[in-house]
Amino acid sequence: EIKLSPFDTKGDPINAARIVKELINSSVDAVIGPLTSEEAAVTSATLSCGTLPIIAPAATQSGLTLLSESAFQLSPNVELQGIRMAEYATLNLQADSAAVITPTGTDDLRMTRAFTDRFVELGGTILAIQYYRTRDKDFGDHIQSIKAQLLGVHPDSMFFIDERGDTLDADGIPCVVDCMFLPGRPGQLRQLLPQINFYNLNAAYLGSDGWGDDAIYRLGDNITKGAVFPSPFLQQQTSEEYLRFAAAYDLRYGKQPQRLACLGYDAARIISMAARAGATTREELVLRLSGITQYQGAAATLTFGEYRENTELPLYRISDGQPVFLGESQTPSMATDEE
């Protein structure tokens, strides 16, 4: 029998660390939580010399599990999104060249670095990278700069001379790159994508989890152009675990469970599975949990990689104004020393 004991961190990383420090010397067998990456980072560091298993359901910052050999992440980290898009570009699209337009937010920059590093590692060439501030609304200069690099003209040139000597307006000249990686939030992307289309810059679009929003779908297929993006946040409500949990949740609360509830359920479920498989100590729980692969949970599929991060990342394509599930992508864990 598993007994649950709730503790409230109040959203404070220091308070979360204090609670976990007390639990290390208690009879508690495992910890579920905390929710945020900031809290998870501090609690994992607190456990650096301990064996208490801690499962962070929603934290997405990379490198958290490197802070403790008993820490686990259920949600794929943000860098994995960039890595998976680079692999999709080279392996599925056979892309040789790429351009990037990215916000300067911390997560977006991490995704961009992961994308460019992996794309180059696989033999691709990054032709251009443009950065914009989160408050920007006019992306013309960024798009024109990429086109200028592709066309071999100065960004300030108003006209382009073609091979026959004709003078053409550079803005209207179709320009093609194999793919474009476009991370960002829905509000940013909703303004960026029509402008890329206006300036006639053509590519296969690769996105981030920010693409999974009605504001993007409503732009229309002529703007989203069959974009492919990864997202751990769009639930596939078809697994047996989800249906079982949703029925029990609805019976108790009168509504369907949201993602956080499903993640919490999955965390408790895999601890229960490990205990029923014979794990009686903290060390045995860590060992059992580390070996989980292709577990079809209520929130998502779960496979723990080398660094105990979930390496399963669902992919979607926007088609007819809806995200179409392409399948689960299982890729190597990419925890880094920098985090």
Q: How would you sum up this structure, described in words?
A:
It is built from eleven helices and 14 strands. The chain is α/β, with parallel strands linked by helices and 339 residues long. It folds into two domains: 110 residues, Rossmann fold; 152 residues, 3-Layer(aba) Sandwich (Rossmann fold), CATH 3.40.50. α1 packs parallel to α2, α3 packs parallel to α4 and α10 crosses α11. The chain is elongated, with a radius of gyration of 23 Å.
Write a brief structural summary.
With 339 residues, the protein is an alpha/beta fold.
Could you state the CATH homologous superfamily of the largest domain? Response regulator
Structural class: alpha/beta
Our count of helices gives 11
Fraction of residues in H or I helices: 25-40%
Radius of gyration: 23 Å
In the predicted model, the low-confidence regions spanning at least 5 consecutive residues are: 330-339
CATH third-level topology of the largest domain: Rossmann fold
Number of strands: 14
Strand order of the largest sheet: 5-4-8-9
Number of domains: 2
Strand content: 15-25%
CATH class of the largest domain: Alpha Beta
Order of helices and strands: HEHEEHEHEHEEEHEHHEHHHEEEE
Question: How does CATH name the architecture of the largest domain?
Answer: 3-Layer(aba) Sandwich
Mean pLDDT: 89
SSE layout and pairings?
Elements: H1 13-24, E1 31-32, H2 37-46, E2 54-56, E3 71-73, H3 78-92, E4 97-103, H4 106-121, E5 125-132, H5 140-151, E6 159-161, E7 167-169, E8 175-181, H6 186-198, E9 201-206, H7 214-217, H8 221-224, E10 228-230, H9 240-253, H10 259-276, H11 282-290, E11 295-296, E12 301-302, E13 312-319, E14 322-330
Parallel strand pairs: 1-2, 2-3, 4-5, 4-8, 8-9
Antiparallel strand pairs: 6-7, 10-13, 11-12, 13-14
Helix pairs in contact: 1-2, 3-4, 10-11
